[in-house]
Every structure is written in C-alpha cells, then in structure tokens.
Amino acid sequence: RGLGSSACRAGEDSWLKSLFVRKVDPRKDAHSNLLAKRETSSLYKLQFHNVKPECLEAYNKLCQEVLPKIHEEKHYPCALVGTWNTWYGEQDQAVHLWRYEGGYPALNEVMSKLRQNKEFIEFRKERGNMLLSRKNQLLLEFSFWNEPVPRDGPNIYELRSYQLRPGTMIEWGNYWARAIRFRQDSNEAVGGFFSQIGQLYMVHHLWAYKDLQTREDIRNAAWHKPGWDELVYYTVPLIQEMESRIMIPLKISPLQ
Q1: Domain housing 47
Q2: I need a labelling partner for 110 at 20 to 30 A (CA). Which of 47, 97, 124, 159 fits?
Q3: CA quadruple 146, 151, 153, 156: dihedral, nearest 10
Q4: Does the residue 35 lie in any domain?
Q5: DSSP secondary-structure letter at 102?
Q6: Confidence (pTM)
Q7: Is 219 within a domain?
C-alpha cells in the first residue's frame, strides 16, 4: 500500500511539472544567424534623443552641420541611413539610424576615431546640454525585408516598434517573411530590424508614405488581400507592447 501511494504521488508530481514545462523546438543556431541577411555584414544603430522643447531647432541645426561630415568621411565605415524628428508620437524627439558596414569591428573603429575627433567631442558636449534623455539599440536587418536605401521625397515615415514576448522572434520572422509580400505594392516598405543590444526582443518596421491619408489608404488596402488577416491574427499574440511614430526627415537625411 505504501509503494502504491508513493507511485501515485510521483505520478502527480510528474503531471504537475508538465504544466510548467514549455515544449520548444531545439534550435541549432542563433536567432541572428537564422533571421539576418547573410549576404551583408551590416550592423545598424538606432538612436532616440529626447530634446528639451526650447532646444529642438538648435539641436537640428547642430546635427545638420556635423552628422553629414561623419557620413561623408571615407575613413569612417558607417553611413547615415536616416534622421528625423517625431511628428506624432513622442514629442520633441530626434531619431537617427546609422549603418556600420562590417559589423561590430566597423562600429568599434568608428567609435575609436570619433573619440579622437575634436569637432565631434565639442558636438557631443553642446548636444548634451540640449537633451533630456537618450537611448540607443544595435540592430540587424531581417533577411526578407528591403534594404534601406536613399529615396527622394517628400515623404513622411512611420517607425512601428514592437516589444515581443521572449522566445517568439523566430515565430515572428516566419510570419513576416510571408506578410511583407502584402506590403510591397506601393514601395512603402523601407526596412525591418531586430535588436541585438539594448532593449531585447524589439522589432522595428520602417515605412514611407506620401502623407497620412496615403498611409491610411495603403494600410486599409492590405485587409482586402487574401491571407493578410490570417497573418495579423497569428502575430498579434506575440506582441507585448507596440508603438507608432510618424516622423519628418531632416534636410540632411538620405531618406527624404
């Protein structure tokens, strides 16, 4: 009888443990290797600067004087992809997107050289007096998204940022590899990225539109394409938080 009770309790313990064990498919490689573009070794840096409201105009002027010099300097293996002010969303905010051609070694090379650049050191000091806060993330680009290349304007840009549930990045990538096909008709897809350093399990989708009404029309049209609703249905449960910024490019931005 005692042996029977022990066996029963062991069975109950095993059943209870099974409730809290999540069955996952074994992965044989890092998410970054499975999802990122293999033909490039580019690393991206996304910067968010919250500017004192009274300093935004001076901040923009300062950036327009200094950032192109870094972008155009041949000895710096980096490029300014785009630079914007947020129009709708977080106010008095600047957003900068940089590409480092060569990955982490290129990033280290640029940072090392900038620490010796007296003009950039002065720029950072002056800029620091204008900021309330700042943060950045290092990103890789999804293999199935468009490469972000310069484009003519005028356009408005939407940066849609998704905080995913940990462990769902591969699932997200699998769904969006199909979903992106529904959003190519009007050339609105600019780039898609996922975080490596900074806030993790973050995804950023960058879109370009002629204006807000065009944005509304394009997004509504997607719902009339068979299959789009199903992909939205399956990706929404993967999201913890999401945010949309409508942004206006500065004059120096390659994305106009």
Answers
A1: 42-249
A2: 159
A3: 30
A4: no
A5: T
A6: 0.86
A7: yes
Residue 14 in any domain: the answer is no
State how far the alpha carbon of 68 is from the alpha carbons of 13, 82, 126, in Å: 64, 11, 17
Residue 57 belongs to domain with CATH number: 3.30.70.100
CA dist 188 and 158 (Å) reads 10
Measured CA to CA in angstroms, residue 194 lies from 31, 142, 228 at distances of: 10, 7, 22
Residue 38, token pair as written in the block: 């293999």
The percent helix, strand, coil of the chain (3-state, each to 5) is 40, 30, 30
Question: Is 213 within a domain?
Answer: yes
Query: Are 140 and 43 within 8 A, CB to CB?
Result: yes
Q: How far apart are CA 140 and CA 41, in angstroms?
A: 9
Helices within 104-252 (DSSP H only) = 104-114, 118-128, 169-179, 212-222, 228-235
- In this structure, the dihedral spanned by the alpha carbons of residues 152, 251, 84 and 81, taken in order and rounded to 10 degrees, is 60
One digit per residue, pLDDT tens: the chain, 256 residues? 555 555 555 555 544 444 444 444 555 556 666 687 665 679 999 999 999 999 999 999 999 999 999 999 999 999 999 999 999 999 999 999 999 999 999 999 999 999 999 999 999 999 999 999 999 999 999 999 988 999 999 999 999 999 999 999 999 999 999 999 999 889 999 999 999 999 999 999 999 999 999 999 999 999 999 999 999 999 999 999 999 999 999 999 999 9
Q: Which helix (H) or strand (E) holds 195?
A: strand 189-197
